[in-house]
Amino acid sequence: MPGFDEARFTIATLPVQVVSQRPDVYNAEREVAAASAEVGNAQAQRWPRLSLTGTVGTAWSRAAGTTTDLSTWSFGPLALSLPLLDGGRRTAQVDAARARYDEAVAVYQGHVRQAVSEVEQALVRLQSTAERADSARAAVQGYRTSFDATEARWRGGLASLLELEDARRTLLAAQTTLVALQHERQSAWVALYRAAGGGFDAANPTAPNTPAAPAL
Predict the structure, then answer these.
(1) Cα–Cα nearest to 20, from 93, 119, 152
(2) Helix 89-155, helix 161-195: angle, nearest 10
(3) 160 within a domain of the structure (yes/no)
(4) Does residue 56 form part of some domain?
(5) Number of helices and strands (H, E) in the chain?
């Protein structure tokens, strides 16, 4: 984009919801949902259950050349299950399901904390490199002006070759520092993209896409 200064393009905050698209957070969230359903199922097994048996069907008969369709049905006995004398087996199943749920919640919280930490670190790196890049560009501009002045003096016989080369080395060192900061900033963009779950396909959570560097 013409006139676009990437170094001045910053992100101060991100909605915390963006981390929910990360594969690790997404899978941990699904584990919590599954564990919650398991707790509900285990609790349901503790209550009395009433079941009804029977059949519903169709039949036909033919008499005197006439066919008659009949609907048949029958009720079987009612069955009442009272899970009272099970030696505490169902209660133990509920306790085990709750323990698995608590574990799934703890794992999920851990993944969320890790994701938020990685996002924060990437944002700090972006801000830091932006601030240092401003100073580095100012330094490059200042050393370039000094080199140009030294070169003009050298051409006029007012400066030695040693002074010219010293000014050149100083300028090159400042330029190298600026390039290193630019590379560090690009790495911070990639880290932020990955920390926020970039490249994750919710339709296929077990095989997230390989994150790619954002366009700078």
Answers:
(1) 119
(2) 160
(3) yes
(4) no
(5) 3, 2
What does the pLDDT read at residue 2?
Answer: 43
Please tell me the total count of domains within the chain. Answer: 1
Residue 5 lies in a domain: no
The span from the CA of 105 to the CA of 89, in Å, is 24
82, amino acid identity: L
| Amino acid sitting at position 98 | R
CATH classification of the domain holding 29: 1.20.1600.10
Domain region containing 166: 14-47+75-195
pTM: 0.55
Q: How far apart are CA 120 and CA 126, in angstroms?
A: 10
147 domain-assigned: yes
- DSSP character at residue 62: E
Q: Which of 58, 80, 61, 82 is nearest to 71 (CA)?
A: 58
Whether the CB-CB separation of 42 and 93 falls below 8 Å is answered with yes
**pLDDT band at residue 210 under the 50/70/90 scheme:** very low
Residue-wise pLDDT for 8-52, tens only, equals 455 556 666 667 778 888 888 899 999 888 888 887 776 666 555
pLDDT per residue as tens digits for the range 150-202? 999 999 889 899 999 999 999 999 999 999 999 998 888 888 888 887 754 44
